[in-house]
Amino acid sequence: MTIAPSNSSTIDPAITERHRQKFPALTDKAYFNYGGQGPMARESLDAIQQAHETMQQKGPFAESVYAWLSQELGSTRKVLAQELQIPMEALTLTENVTVGCNIALWGLDWQAGDHLLMSDCEHPGVIAAAQELSRRYGVELTTCPLLATLNQGDPTAIIAEHLRPETRLLMISHILWNTGQVIPLQEIVEVCHAHAPNPVWVLVDAAQSAGALPLRLTDSGVDFYAFTGHKWWCGPAGLGGLYIRPEVFEQIHPTFIGRRGITVDEAGNPAAWQSSGKRFEISTSDFSLAAGLKSAIALHNQWGSAEARYQRICELSHYLWERLTQLPKVACLRTTPPESGIVSFQINSDSAAAANLQPKLVAALEQQGIFLRTLLHPNCIRACTHYFTLESEIDRLVEAIQQWIANEIIS
Ligand SMILES: Cc1ncc(COP(=O)(O)O)c(C=O)c1O
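YS: structure for the whole thing
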């Protein structure tokens, strides 16, 4: 049987081919690690280099550099605000997702006995932050079982069941990094905000959703949305952001504090907090990264809208999922087609060496120029498709897995 991605006829492969040529990393690889880090386009690399050149030519320490930087950062904030559908003032630039989650976590005025709820599919970095917060402030930390809702069940109902009168914050990912499940964010926010006796705020880890899903954050009602540019947006590592809902902005406080977060008086002393999301920015950073991320986002929009890109991501992940489900000894975690670009699967074997098979397969594929990763919870392999993934890349991956299984397990 021949399988092709649905709607594939509407995508001109020549356009995708030309688009891919802009990414030096893609010339000789079959790349499926977008959930870890996206490749950077030549234009983004050049934009960063150009920003450095400009800063060196003008200064680097000079009034004119600061005027230029303020314009550069301003235009990147504008682009991000447009992508996320938020007011520019509600955006804090950070280094990555983890920093954004930490700003929200540590910024709340926690009292001993408060409750923090998170899902059982969060990233170890943010789990560790929540655990330390729990230890330091006597906050009760519990998890709710979203992994079990992958193929059946209602994540919103599970979360609602686990809220308590003392719950102050829910921390969840918009797309679960291990299974690719898309969480019904708006519905969950509504349940949390309507919770009695106190509304529960929602902090979202957007590592796998920003740059992949079309987003309207203001409409979603979410309180905190922590994202990075270096995964699905294919921007440089080291630049991300945090959206804080304007209605809760004054109720969280900066933990790390520096010159970017304040204004100074005539004598040069700290005078006031910044009134925008800049309040949570700290000090000197690699400002050239802003040009790289802005350029990366412009390139995606040249290819198509966020909706069109998401649709293509899902067509391709559907195709990959369908092909994998037909392989012997391979079991996709999902029993229905994916709703994101993440396809996770397990290699099944009765042999005593089963536990080592997945890392062995990933290492063998990397030797052939095919890039995926293993995950520990649940124990699986994760492959990600982007909108510019090629069907031929997917075919190459599936055939390489089939061949490896034939050699290592079946023979
Ligand atoms: C769900 C999730 N959260 C957080 C992170 C960490 O992201 P960052 O390096 O941007 O802090 C990752 C990285 O893979 C992730 O997948």
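YS: worth flagging: The chain has two domains: 8-31+305-410, 46-300.
IM: good catch. Also The chain has twelve helices and 15 strands.
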